[in-house]
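During the second half of the funding period, the structural biology subgroup turned its attention to how the target accommodates small molecules. The most pressing case was zinc ion, which had performed well in the primary screen but for which no bound structure existed. We therefore specified the complex as follows and requested a full 3D prediction, including the ligand pose.
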Amino acid sequence: MDKKFDRYITIDKIDYVVSRKKKKKYECIFCEIAKRNPDVNPNIVYEDEKAMVILNIYPFNPGHLMVIPKKHLELFEELIQDEMNYLMKLTQASVELLKKIYEPEGFNIGINQGEAAGASVLHFHIHVVPRYEHEFGFMEVAGSRVIVEETEDTLRKLRTHAHEIERYLKE
Ligand SMILES: [Zn+2]
């Protein structure tokens, strides 16, 4: 942590920042997933030669997906047109997949660029988070979310319907 920024860190952020530093076993976890490192649990929902869709293991809501190019790049502005088009299409496909399974009332679709913006992995990725009017199944406990659905169950549902992504990409 850069000393000059200490005063901007609030108490509830400290745990998060510390645990994030400790977790860093690999240079880039998404590159390890793309390389199929057997020691990394990939949670892959869909993949092809260019990109992948994985389930976030620290989800904001069940079904929180990340759309990730296999090539390591960190900046949104580095994406070339073809990559941009493809990742956007895959993001749309991920939205369609989540609509099929969870019927959410809304989505957060977004990019956190740089650690200052909350990116815990610098490898470019797009978050797709299903949202609900009343967020049934959740409660706020001491500032952290309790997620009712098990990751394994979410993953099983997503993989069962992953053909929806392929179908959408072909449209
Ligand atoms: Zn990477």
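Two results from this model are relevant to the next phase. The longest strand covers residues 126-131. Residues 109 and 152 are 23 Å apart (CA to CA).
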